[in-house]
UniProtKB/TrEMBL annotation:
GO terms, biological process: L-leucine catabolic process
Keywords: Flavoprotein, Oxidoreductase
A GO MF term: 3-methylbutanoyl-CoA dehydrogenase activity
Protein name, UniProt field: Thermophilic desulfurizing enzyme family protein
Domain of life of the organism encoding this protein: Eukaryota
Domain Acyl-CoA dehydrogenase C-terminal: from-to ranges: 294-434
Ranges where the Acyl-CoA dehydrogenase/oxidase N-terminal domain occurs: 81-162
Keyword Oxidoreductase on entry: yes
Length: 460
């Protein structure tokens, strides 16, 4: 896509399809009405790329999907540091994901999707995260939430929600934080009513649809549902202002009397009001958890790879050789310790990538093999989960080490706020605290030492 690589000066001349602007402007205005200090980015800044992507249509091959992800990452990378500082709600960035087609990469081709499997979906997430960790994370969460009905829903719900999401090019957020037990669900005859709040609600402000999760009153049964975000029952706090992943809109939300038809309760029989599968007891339904854990590992890896690529560009153009070492070199790229550090970081990232790709293949294969009959055994599910846990451990350790270590090979001037090299570490440090990696290490220890596969939990 030459126009993306050649025209990164953001001199936009073309007009964008009104539907994209209208959709996001309406959402921004609605949110601003509730919080006057709320600011969002303008989709019009990417209008040239919207027009180009629209003219090219969605990719038709695996290699083309990966190139499309690289193109989007290149666009985002030109001003990621500035957008990170501004901390505006990423309406523009989500509009770019929409027009590029990346939201549809896993969708059925019959509804206009890319028809790719998770193995490619994970690589697309990783590529986007190289350019902007926040947007890579949002894409990853969207792909998981957009496939929720496939994993925990009925066959009818799977088809209905795939058609809804892919044909409308919807972005899906999620109010699913298992540590919060304050989302109450009550039965009102032909529908359910959701009330409560969530401390974290990734992507909700900028979403078209939101995934809910809670426990039905009077039972221990969990209910997942997908609801339109543009309705009065949502009250976003706009309070996400953390050190990293600043454009993920992961703040809190209050949910007030939002009605959901029983027919939209994923995996439930609307007549008997009984769950067909329990998301924590049926092995296939529990694949939702390792699937999203591997989303995490992939954007950690992408962020770390992006940091090393960014640092390489800085070192080759701006880092000065040290003149007091006794073995003085003319340029920083000739210095032993810089070459040694880059080589070490590169090797560890290659190893992390190989492991993550293997885990991605395991997830893809189990869905391809068992997705129709949903006949996964507890042992099969557990072994896949341990591949994912291994990738999560290694990408956590490696990404933290690399994103902190790149300052050693770029120098003190690289700590400048406008340079933005610190955002890579801030991004991985923020999300790697999502669930303590120590428990993943313990889990792997029990698997290796005692041959025990893990019991499914909301984080396993």
């Amino acid at each position: 896509m030459d126009v993306v690589r050649e025209k990164l000066d953001f001199n936009f001349q073309n007009s964008m399809a009104p539907s994209i602007i209208d959709n996001y402007s309406a959402g921004a205005n609605k949110a601003s009405h509730k919080n006057p200090s709320f600011e969002s980015s303008d989709p019009a800044i990417y209008e040239e790329y919207h027009a180009t992507f629209s003219a090219e249509s969605i990719p038709s091959s695996t290699s083309a999907w990966l190139q499309r992800a690289r193109d989007v990452a290149s666009i985002l990378a030109t001003d990621t540091a500035a957008r990170d500082i501004d901390n505006k709600s990423p309406f523009a960035e989500i509009s770019l994901l929409k027009s590029s087609g990346l939201l549809k990469v896993l969708g059925p081709t019959g509804y206009g999707g890319g028809g790719q499997d998770w193995e490619i979906g994970y690589k697309v997430i990783r590529e986007v995260a190289k350019g902007d960790g926040s947007i890579g994370m949002l894409l990853g969460y969207h792909l998981l939430w957009s496939k929720t009905a496939d994993i925990v829903g009925t066959d009818e719900q799977k088809e209905r929600f795939q058609k809804l999401i892919i044909e409308n090019n919807y972005f899906v957020g999620g109010a699913v934080n298992p540590r919060d037990n304050d989302l109450a669900i009550s039965d009102h005859g032909d529908h359910l009513v959701f009330n409560g709040s969530k401390h974290f609600n990734t992507g909700g402000v900028i979403s078209d649809l939101t995934v809910f999760e809670g426990v039905l009153s009077g039972t221990s049964n969990h209910v997942f549902a997908i609801v339109p975000t543009s309705q009065p029952g949502f009250e976003f706090a706009h309070n996400w202002n953390n050190i990293g992943l600043r454009l993920t809109e992961s703040g809190s939300v209050k949910i007030n009397d939002i009605k959901v038809p029983w027919s939209d309760a994923l995996g439930w029989d609307a007549t008997s009001k009984k769950p067909l599968d329990s998301v924590l007891s049926i092995p296939f339904a529990t694949l939702l958890l390792p699937t999203i854990q591997l989303v995490f590992a992939n954007f950690y890896l992408g962020i770390a790879q992006g940091s090393l690529e960014f640092a390489r560009g800085y070192t080759t153009t701006s880092t000065r050789a040290w003149p007091f070492g006794g073995d003085n070199k003319d340029s920083a790229t000739e210095e032993f310790y810089i070459l040694e550090r880059y080589g070490n970081f590169h090797a560890h990232l290659l190893a992390a990538e190989a492991l993550t790709d293997r885990a991605s293949k395991e997830i893809s294969d189990i869905f391809l093999t068992h997705g129709g009959k949903r006949d996964v055994s507890a042992r099969q599910r557990g072994e896949v989960a341990e591949w994912v846990a291994s990738a999560k451990v290694v990408t956590t350790d490696t990404s933290l080490r690399v994103t902190a270590g790149v300052f050693e090979v770029t120098g003190s001037r690289a700590t400048g706020k406008k340079v933005g090299l610190d955002r890579f570490w801030r991004d991985v440090r923020t999300h790697t605290l999502h669930d303590p990696v120590a428990y993943k290490n313990r889990e792997l220890g029990r698997y290796f030492l005692l041959d025990e596969v893990p019991e499914p939990t909301w984080y396993t």
